[in-house]
Amino acid sequence: MARLPEGLRAGGAELWAARGRREEAGCFEAFRQAAFAKPEWVLEAADFLVHCFEGREPVLAGWTGIGELMQELSSGGAMLTLTVVTEWVMGGERRRLLPFADAVLASRAHLTAEPTLDVMLALASTLAFLRPARARDLLAHVEACRRDGVAVDRAAHAEAVWRVACGQVVAAGEEEVRSFWDQRLSRGSEDGGWDQAEEQRALRDLAMWWREEEPAAARFRAVLPADWDARRDRWAGPRSGSEALGEERVAESRQVENEDVDSDVVDEEGPRHWVMAAGSWWQGFLVGGLTGVVIAALVFMVFEWNAARHRSQAVSEVEPGERPVSPQAAREVERLEEELRFLGNVESLREVSWDKASRMLMGETPDLPYDSRLYAELLVLLHWAPSRDPITRFHVAELLLRRAPTGDLVTLWEEVAEANEEMRPAIAHAAREALAMVTASWTDELRERLGRLAELSQEEPE
Question: pTM surpassing 0.70?
Answer without folding.
Answer: no
